[in-house]
Write a structure and sequence with these properties.
RNA_pol_subH/Rpb5_C; 4-stranded mixed β-sheet; DNA-directed RNA polymerase activity; transcription; RPB5-like_sf; DNA-directed RNA polymerase
Length: 76
């Protein structure tokens, strides 16, 4: 089976497991955890150790800002 997370076009998906870092992100954007865009637990790009309720940081290459960082809430 092909591991899509290793494909060059799939951006890095990093699990954030530090509650303080998650709180800082939510404060920065003035949102609640449930207001974050969602990513399914079964999505092939979701880290293997991600659980429902976790936050995933996605880092994409960008032509204008070098890197674009977005955050997703893991759902079932």
């Amino acid at each position: 089976m092909v591991d899509v997370s290793q494909h060059e076009l799939v951006p890095d998906h990093v699990l954030i497991d530090d509650p303080e870092e998650i709180d800082a992100i939510l404060d920065e954007y003035d949102v609640r955890k449930t207001n974050l865009p969602k990513i399914k637990r079964t999505d092939p790009a979701t880290p293997d150790d991600a659980e429902v309720g976790d936050v995933v940081k996605i880092v994409r290459n960008s032509r204008t800002t070098d890197q674009a960082v977005v955050y997703r809430l893991v759902v079932s």
